[in-house]
Design brief:
The complex is a heterodimer. Chain A is mainly alpha-helical. Chain A has 10 helices and 7 strands. The longest helix of chain B has 14 residues. Chain B has a two-stranded antiparallel ribbon with strand order 1-2. The chains are: A mainly alpha, B mainly alpha. Chain A: GO terms for molecular function: electron transfer activity; heme binding; metal ion binding; oxidoreductase activity, acting on a sulfur group of donors, cytochrome as acceptor; transferase activity.
Chain lengths: 262, 151
Amino acid sequence: MRRLVALALLLSACGGQSGEYAQQSQIPPEAIQSGYTFLQPETQALQDDDFANPGFLWVDKGETLFNQIPETGAPACASCHAADNRPLSGVAAHYPVMDEETGKLMNIEARINACRERHQDLAPLDHESDALLGLTAYVASLARGVPISVNIDGPARNYYEAGKDYFFLRKGQFNLACSQCHNDNWGKKLRGDTISQGHGNAFPAYRMEWQTFGSLHRRLRDCDSGIRAEPLDYGSATYMAVELYLAKRAEGLAMESPGVRR
Amino acid sequence: MKPAAAAALLCLLVPSACNQASNDRLASPVTIVGDAVPAPLEGRQGDAQRGQQVFTSRDSGHCLLCHQLASLDAEFQGNVGPPLTGIGDRLDAGQIRYRIIDAQTIWPDTVMPSYYRTDGLRQVGEAYKGAPALNAQEVEDLVAFLETQTD
């Protein structure tokens, strides 16, 4: 019997391939913490000070755009969203959501562009444009401090599963999964960076490495490029799905945008 | 235990059991003996000084991302992987070579990349398709460098 076991091991060993997926792992709910925890105190201080935090340049720009009547004379965002009428305070903490009109998952950026097309008769804004980042940052800032909670029931479930799949899929020339850094090795040093748990609660955020403000999808593209995987498109269905998975995974964590990161 | 891990363990316990296994997912054929790849890749001669460059350089191996090496005077050494100080006392050249070229066969769940692997990968970035992360010469330079790392 023992010989058989050894033989079986040997046979499987010789044709053995490492798995396509990383092992299932999870951060215990009581250990969930924001990327903020792992920042240098100077970076934390910058995020904490609304006057010094460079992200507020975008928030302010977004607020102006929000209240402005477009050149076409279309209604301003503010004319449909006021304190007593479809208020936006806190809503970003529950995104992404299913869009009833298209049946697709939609993040804040996509919602803003949908409002432009459907209610303002305006063209969608480009990904990473100052205008889209600004509006997104303004809306996200209205949810600062609100605990993340998202709905993954019904049709959103498929997106959640797809996002989870991507999180554990090994990919790129380095053949690594998101989970291997952010579930299995958070708190350790990757040269100058302390690996965080990979939550999206600070985004859109100002990143020193970018020397500018950017979206969560830009951050995801950096992580994919870091493992030498081909990054996906901004706004792609898969990154939307990852965004939903990350939000569910971070449930209860407070929204921080505009965050400041290394 | 995953098959490859079992294999590595078996190889450690009974080296003859795994004699002459081959690995066909790498950039050039290698022969695995026990837990080592004794022959230099493509028969190349390594150079320890160049190996130090490969080890530290951001555009090359950049092993410092995850490993510490006390002999180097470099800031911000990573600790995702074990320190490699004194590695030349613990492992021989063939063992070091195998760990650099295909650590993910030895430890299937490891975050250490398989630097000489080309096959069976997904979503590889356009700029990196078809080539290993380190070529045969760079691997041999690294082996030569790490062999000299004795306490």
